[in-house]
Specification:
Strand order of the largest sheet: 1-3-2-4-7-5-6
Largest sheet: 7 strands, mixed
Amino acid sequence: MNVFDLKQGSAPLLVCMPHIGTDIPHELRALYVPRALDVEDTDWHLATLYNFLDGLGASVLRATTSRYVIDLNRPPDDAPMYPGASNTELCPTRFFTGDALYLPGAEPSLAHRLERRSQYWAPYHQALAQELQRLQALHGQVLLWDAHSIRSAIPWLFEGRLPDLNIGTADGKAADARVTQAVALACQDAPAISSVVNGRFKGGYTTRHYGNPAGGIHAVQLEKCQSLYMQEVAPYAYDPVLAAKCQPVLQAMLRAGLDAVKALPR
């Protein structure tokens, strides 16, 4: 099974999409409650929403396996990303609603979790690390953009409604302040779209692990509300009219971050 797709680009930009996958292997399907097979918590339609990446010369890494099998944006030791809050695990056992993903007694054992980590998580992160190394050898400074989307209101995970665009840089540790500022300023050209920096979502494993501004890697996670570009309820349809209002902002944010990275000393 191919657990990711990687398209290599020429610019100092790697965009990864760890939660875009929808595949649940046939041999695992009987373990889940039937509802799980609809993979409702997918980061839907990101490839379509980010269809301008070729024009930026970006490398793009896209997962193919569902986050219900393994969460590629969680640490390999399964430490919680947000202590004290509701967290999803390396091998999630709950929907974003808090309901059980698995049939009673069918949750993955430690041995099965380790097997999934080896089969899915490790190859994805090996590819991510190698592509960052390739781009850094070419350019010196690299922007790693971790692309996500989520329903705008999920009481089990957070109170109220999220801002439309949630920029995370691990409280400033994952990217140079000039990069973060450039990305955040690009949002202000669209006042109807709300944004926040390092709010509820500060960046997951990818941002926190690979972001190393002193070492030339500037990691930014963008968690965007799905209400910006699609229906948040089944059948989770893409809305091209909404997306047309959102895409210019996304493109401006990426261009601003990329220009800021290129302006940094090599």
